[in-house]
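Forwarding the complex inputs:
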Amino acid sequence: MIKGIIIVNNSGKPRLVKFYQNVFGEERQQSVIRRVFQQVSTRPDSFCNYLEGSVPEWGENIKLIYRHYATLYFVFAVDAQESDLGILDLIQVFVEALDKRFANVCELDLIFHSDKVHYILDEIVMGGMVLETNINSILQAINDQERMHNDSMRKAGPSDSVDTISTKLGAGRNW
Amino acid sequence: MSTQARGLNNFISDLRNSKSKQEESARVEVELAKIRKKFNPGDAKLAADGSNPSLSSYQRKKYVWKLVYIHVLGYEVDFGHAEVLALVRSKKYSEKMVGYVALSLLLRGSDPIMSTIIDTMKADLTTAPNNPKRGKVSVKNDAVQCLALCSLANISGLELIQAMHVEVQHILVSRTSTEQVKKKSALCLLRLTRTSPNLISGREFAPHMGQLLQEKHLGVLTSVMSLLNGLALQQTTDYEVLIPHVVHILSMLVMKKACEREYLYYQTPSPWLQIKLIKFLQLYPNAIENHDIGMAAAGNEHVNQLINVVSKILMETDVSDSINKSNADHAILFEAVDLIVAWGTTCPIVLREGAMKLLGKFISVREPNIRYLGLSTMAKLAQIEGSVEGAKNHQATVLVSLKDADISVRRRALDLLFVICDTDNAERIVDELVAHLVVADASIREEMVLKIAILAEKYATDLRWYVDTILKLISISGDYVSDPIWHRVVQIVTNHPQGDLQGYAAATLFVAVAPIRCHETTVRVAAYILGEFGFLIAERPGMSGDEQFRVLHQHWFTVDTQTRAILISTYAKLANLYEECRPLVAPVFAKSKNSIDVEVQQRCVEYAAMREAFSPEAVEDLLREMPPFEDKRRSALELRLLQTEGENSATVAKASVPSEVEQQRALLAAQMFSSGPIEEDMANGMQPIEEQDDELVSKPSDEHVGEDEEAEAREIGADPSGDVDGEGEGEAEEHNTGDVVQDQQNTRVLVGIPKELIPAMRKAFSNLCTSPSGVLFENSMLQVGVKHEYVGAQGRISVFFGNLHSSPLQNFKVRVDQPDHLRMQMQGTQDLIDDGEYDSAGCTVATKTQAKLMILLEVTAPFDDAPSMRITFDTEEGEHHDYPLRLPLVATCFMEPVNLDPGAFMQRWKSLEGQDRECQEVMKLPPNAPEIDEQYMERVAKIIVDGLKFGRCQGVDPTPWTVSGAATFRTGAQDMNGNNINVGCLVRVEANPRANAFRVTTRTLHPLCSKAIKNVSLVFALTPLWNELLPSMAENLTKGGVLYCPLQTNKRIVLGIVLATYIAISNIASLKHITVEGEAATKKTLLINVVACKRSNQLPEQWCMDDNDTPRYIGDADFNSSSIAIRHYTHQGFEKCLAGKTIVFIGDSTVRYQFMHLVGFLKFQRFMRCQDYNMSKPPDDECYLIGFKDLHHDWTSWYKQSTIMTGSDGKHDEQQHSLCDCFRPDPFVARLHSLKTYEYRFVKRRTSYGEINIIYLQNFKDRIRMNQDYPPFSSYWSTRRCKTGECGDSNRTFAFDGDTNSTFWTVLPRLKATHVFTNLGWGNFYQLSEFSCKMEEFNAHHPDINTYLLSRLPSKDGVFAPHLTFDKNKLKCKVNSLDRAVINKDVPTSWYWDSNHALSILNEEYNHQLTKAICPMLTT
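Prediction (whole assembly, two chains):
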C-alpha cells in the first residue's frame, strides 16, 4: 500500500502532505518530510526514481518512489505490495490530472488551491490504495463535486468565490 | 473560480512573504489565536456539540481550511475539532466536503471525539439508496456516501470500523450502488480489513467477490482487485476459487485488448488492473502445477490460458519511445516476471529462460529505472533452481552497475552479485567487491562488508582465502567490520583444525598486527587467534611467544578497553605457555589490576589469582584453547542481513541456504568433534565496555618513548630475528607440537641476523632509499646488492645475492612479499623465487657467484610500508639461515617534483585551507643547536628538494625564512575513467630565527584524507645534523607519523613532522596557462582599462557610474572617496586572457545569456545594446538597459537572432565562427512534463593572441545529450549537420547522454576544455553542494581543467528565491565558484529582463568577474 504522499518543492517546503499510515503528530510528520526531502533533493534527475527505505517512521522495507517536475518533487512512500513502475505511472496520472484541472499546473496552484489538490488526490488514492487511474473519470468526479459544491453554496447565499490567482510561475515560460 | 476564501489566500500570501521562519511562526500564532477566539469567543453560547453557532458557513469553512493549511506547514493544531465535526454534520455538501477532508487530516481514528461522529457518518453512508429516476438528488447522496467512505478509509479507527464495516460491505455488494460508490467502498473495506484483519470470513465472502469480478467497469474492477489482493493475502486458500475469473479478465485485457478507450493509458489497457490481477496470481505459486499442455483437465483450461498470457506479455512487450508507455508496459512485464518467480520450478522452462534473457537486456540499458528493476528482478529470478546459470552470464554487466553513480542501482547490483555468487565465481566476485569497497562510499560500505564476509565464508574452497579476505576487509574498511564478522572468523578458525588453517591464520595475523598502525579490529582478531593458536607458529623465526606478546602489546595504549580485555586473556595464555613472557606480562597485569574498567580489572585480578587458587593442572586446563563453537543454524551475519533487508529479500533467502562447500565443511567438522555451547561465552567476553581507562589512556606517549631500541629496529627496516636461535629451539622442545620435519631439523642450527649488524643494516637501507644503487646487506656469507630506478609510478629493482662464503649456499630461496599497493613481476635465477605456491627446494649459489632477482613494479596506492624480502638458505655446515630484510622501496621513490609558479602555489595552498586538510607542527630546536641563519635555511631547502624530491617554489617565499615546495606521488592505479591516480603534496616551512623554532605545514585534499595521511607520510627534519640524518629520515618515511630522530645524546626528540598527501593536486598542469599580467608595465594600458567611476545614490551598493553613465560593478572596493578607479580588462585584455583556452559553459538559460554576452563582447567589442535585440522601437544608440516592456518580440525569435549574431556574417568578421546544435519545439512551450530541448553552441574566435573556443552546453535538468554530428563527437568543420538556426528533432543520433557529472568525465576531456563554468540548471543549492564534491573528485583527476561553480541569480520574484541564494562557504566540498548572486544584491528590478534573466549590463559584469577569475589582475 501507499504509506504516504509528499509533495515538496525544491527548497524543501511541503506543498501537500498525506499520511496513510503510522505517522502521527506534526513534529514526526515534519521530520519525515525533512528526511524525504534531504534524500530526494540530492539525487540528480538522471538517477533512477527509487530510493530504498530510510525513513524509520514508516518502518523497514519502504521504498520512496518519486518524480521531479520543475520545482516540485512528488514522493510516494510504498511497501513491497505495490508495483514500482505502476506507482511512477500513478504519479504521472496525478500530475496530468492536476495539469488538466489547472491548465498548466505550477507550484502556485498547489499553494493557493490546496483544497482542490486534496480533492483530486482523494479521487486517485484512498486510504493508501489506488482508487482510480482514468483521468477522465477523476476529473468527472471533481467536476461533479464542484458543481454540487457550488449548488449548495448558491443556496447558502452570496457567492464566496474569490478571484483566481492569475500569476503563474514555473521553471519559466521563458528559458 | 476558486473554492478557497480570500481571507485564506491573504493568509497564505502573508506566510509566503515571511522573511524568516520566526516571522512565519509568529504569523501562524496570531492566526491560531484569532481562530481560537472565533471558535470560542467566550461571550457567545456554544452549541451542544461545542461549535460556535454564530459562525457563518463561510467563516467556519475558512477557519477550518486555515487550520488544515497550518497543519500541513507543520504547526500543531490542537483545537477546532468541534467545528470540523459541525461541518461534517452539516446538511450542505460544501460544508460536508470541507469537514470530511479536515477530519481525515486533523483527527486520528483513536481520537475519543470520533465516537460522536459515528452516527453522522453512518447516516451519510446509508443515505437513501440511489434511484436513477430521482436524478440530481441521487447524485448528491452518492457524493455524500463517497465522502464518508473516503474519510472512513483515510481514518480507519478501530471503533469506526466496528461500527461501520457491515454497512460498507453492504454498499459494496448492493446492486444499486453506483460505480463511484462501489469503487470507494471496495477500497474502504480493504482499508478496514487491513486495520482489523479477519473482519470478513473468506469462505462467505468469496462468492460475493466472484460476483464483483463480473463487473464491466474497469475502475470498479481495479478497486475490487485491490480488495481481493488484500483479502487473499490474509486468507489465501479461501479465494483460490477465483483464479479462473482473474485469469479470464487478464486474458481479455492482454490477448484481446478489451478495454474502454479512457482506460487506455498510453495505449496500454489499464496497466494498474493488469498489475493487480498478476499480483493476485502470484499468491498461488502452485496454480500451474502439472500444466503440461494438452493434459489439463477439463475446467482447467485457464491454466493454459494463463501461460499463454504470460508468454505474450513476455514476448511482445515492445520498447516504446514514450517513457510513460514503456513504463506502463514494463510495469506489467516486471509483474509477469515476478509471477514466473513465484511459480518457480513449476514454470515452463522456456518462460524462465525468456524472462532471464529479457532481464539481461534490461540491466544493460541506460534508463536507470529499468536497470534498477532489472537488477532487482533478476536477483529474484536467479533464486529459482537452475536459473542462476543464466544470470551468471550477465556477471560482467552487473559489475558495471556496481560502479553506477546511483546508490539505488549500486545496491541492486550488489544484491544480484550476491545471489549469483557460487563456488565457481566466488573468488572473482569477492575480489571485485573488495576492490570496489576501496572506492565505495560510506552509505553502502557496511552492507558490502557484511555481504562480502558472508560470501567469502560460504564459498571459500580454501578457508585461508576466507581469512585473507576478511583481513583485507578490516584493513580497507575496518570501521564497518562489525563484531559478528570477526567473531565469525574466530569461530571458523577454531572449528577447522584440519589442514593448516589455524597455523596459517596465526601467522597471517601475526604479520597483520606487526605494524604499529593497524585497525583495532585486526588487533582483536590477532589477540584472540594468537592466544589460541599462537603456539602453532611459535617455532617460526621471528614469531616466538615473546614476539607475539610484543607485536600485540605495542597496540596496548591505543586500543579501547574492550580490546584490552581480550589482550589480557591472550597475555594470560601466552604467559602460561612461554616462560619468557611471564616477566613481560606481569607488569601489565599489575598495572591494570587497578583499572577503572571493571572488565579489565576483573580479568587481571582473576588471572593473577588463578595460580594461587588452583592446582597447576587446573590452570592449564583453564587456559587451554577453546573448544569448537556450536554451529548455529543462522549465523549472526545472516541475522544481521535479515534485520536490514527483511524476510522477502532475495539475498536473505540466498544466505540462509548453506552452500555445498559449507555442507562439506560441516560434515568434516562433525566428524572431528562434538560441539559445545561456546559462542555465548565468547560474546560475553567481548561485550563493549563503555568506561575508559583514563589513567592508562592518558599517557601513551611516555610509554612509547620508553620502548627499547630493538623494538624500534624491528618496526623499521630489518627484522633482527635474534630470537630465532637458542630460544626458538628451546620452545620447540617445550611444546610438543612440532611435526616430523621439525623433529628432523632439530639438529640444525638456525641463524638469523645478529643484533650487532642491525645499525649497519639500517644505514644501508637508508642510503639505498636515496641512492640508486648500493649494498643492502652484508655479512661473512652473503652480500645483497640492490639497484633501482623509477619512472613515474613504475620502477625496476635488481637484487643481487653474492655468495661470499667458502662453500655453496644451498636451498637458496627468496620470498618477496607482494603487498596490495604494488603490482610486481619477478624474474630471477631458476628456483630462486619462492612464490609460496608449492614447497620449492630453492637454488644453489656457488661460491663467488651471484643469484639475480629482477622486479618490475608499479605502485597502485599510497603506502607506508616497505615490502619485505626473506632470504633463506642452508650451508654445508648444517646451518639454516633466515634473513628477513626489507626492500628499500619507499614512498619517496615515486615522488616527482612539481614546479609551481607562485600564484599557482598560493592558489592551491589557499584552496586547501581548513582543518582536515592541513597538518601542522611547530618545533623548537634544542638549546645547543646552532642558530637559524640563511645558510641553515638553504640546507632546509636542500632537504626538501634533494631529500624529499619536492619542487621548490621560490617565488612564494618572500623572505629567506620560508621554504615552500610541491610534489606529486605517482601511482599506476586507475580511477573509474582510466586515468592514473596521483597523490600530491604541498609543504611549507617557516622559521622563526629569534625563537629558534620552525613551523612545518602541509596541506592535503582528498576524500580519503585520513587514510592517505596514514599511508604516506613525508618526514622532514630540521637539524644541524641533517646531512647525516637524511638517510634515516628517508627510512622513517616508510613509517609515517612522528619522526623520532636519534641524536648523539641518544635521546629521542621529536624534531618535526610533516604529513602531506592528497590525491591529485587539481590544476597543476593548467596552472602554466595562468600568466600574471605583470611582465611589462608598459603593456598594461593596452590590456587593462582604468575607468573613473562615481558613486551615485541611485545605484545600489557596490556599483558606481562610469564616464559613459553606465553602471559598473566594483565589488568590495573602498568607497571613501566620491570617485574611484575601477579596473577591467579591455577588449584586448579579454582576448589575451582567453586566447588558447577552451571555455565551456554548462547550465540553464542564465548561463547561456552569460555565454552570449561574452561571445557578443568579443565580437562587437562593446556591451550588447538594445538594437541587438532587434526591437521594433528604434532604440537610442547607447541603450544598454532593455526592459521587458520595451521588447516586443518573444523569446523564441530573439533566441534565433542571437544564434545568427554570434556567427560569422561573412563580411566583417572572419574571426568568429559558430555552430549551433539546437532545436526547440515550435511553438516553444515549457510544459511540466515535456521538457525535451537540447542545445549546444560552439564558437571559435581567432585573435592575434591565439584561438578562443567558447562552448555552451544546455543543462536545464541535469541532463545533457550530445548529437554525434557535433563536437566533440565530430569535427568542428564537418558538414554532416543541419544549418544553424534550422535545427530539428529528426535525423539526430545522440552520441552522449548523461548528467552533469558524467558530462564532466566524458565530454570535457574530449572538448579539451581548459575552463568550465557550470550550474546544474534548475538545481538547487543542495544539489550544487553535493555536486561540489563530484567536482572536487573530477579536479583531482583532471588538474588541467579548471572548474568553477556558477551560482544562480537571485530571481526577482519571491517564489524561487530561497533556494537560489548561494554561499560558497556552505558548499560541501571546496571548489572554485563564481558568485553571480552577489553582484545582483539590491540591483533594481529594471535591470532584469524578466524574473530570471539579467540584462546585458549585469551579464557584462559577470564576464569581467569570470575573466578575472581566469587571469588574476596584478594590483600594483
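Chain B is about 45% helix and 15% strand.
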